[in-house]
Amino acid sequence: MADRAKFQAIKGVRDILPPESALWNRVEQAAREVFGTFGFAEIRLPIFEVTELFARSVGADTDIVKKEMFTFDLHASQDLEVRRDVMIGRRTSGPYDIQDTELQTVHEAEIQVGVFIQIIDNAIREDRVARTSENVRALDGLQTLYKQFSAICESYRSSFPSEDPKWNTEMQTLFEGIASYASKLNFGSLVSLRPEATASVVRAYIEHGMQVQPGNVKLYYMGPMFRRERPQKGRYRQFYQIGAEVLGSSDAPGIDAEVIEMLLAFFERLKLKGAILNINSIGDKNCRPAYVERLRAELQVVREQLGADSQRRIETNPLRVLDSKLESEQAIIEKLPRIAENLCAECRAHYDEVKRQLGLRGITYQENWRLVRGLDYYMRTTFEIIAPGLGSQNAVCGGGRYDGLVELLGGPATTKGIGFAIGTDRLVLSLQESGAGEVASGLDVYLAWFGAVTQPAAVKLARRLRDAGFVVELPAVEMKFGKSLGLADRLKARHAVILGEDELAAGVVAVKRLSDGTQQKLSEPDLFSYLRAARNS
Ligand code: AMP
Question: DSSP letters of 236-262?
Answer without folding.
Answer: -SEEEEEEEEEEES---HHHHHHHHHH
